[in-house]
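Example: Cyclin-dependent kinase 4 inhibitor B.
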Amino acid sequence: MGDRLASAAAAGDTAGVEELLRGGAPVDGLNRFGRTPLQVMMMGSTRVARLLLEAGARPNVADGGTGTTPLHDAARGGFLDTVQTLVRFSADPGARDHWGHRPADLARDVGYLDVATFLDSL
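Written out as structure tokens, the predicted fold is:
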């Protein structure tokens, strides 16, 4: 079920995520690549993020290879609504990847100053 939930989250399939969670899919179940649904979700899909987080997904799970968290990914993509949702559910804006970058640093590097400013204000 981990692969199915991760696939639904990656596609931004809100109805599919809801159905799988209701059916007992583990919210932090790993897909075949060892990543959780929150890590692979479509970052612009705030509703999917909220569903996973409300079901208990861990917002600070880091990628083993890069050290990035879902907050890093959402910030780098410029998805302010998703960033705000992750922060509301205790995502750590001070988390650093393997190169020492915080989510705000990544947002700033690619020009998402609204995201960087929000994260820096926390």
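The CA atoms of residues 93 and 121 lie 10 Å apart.
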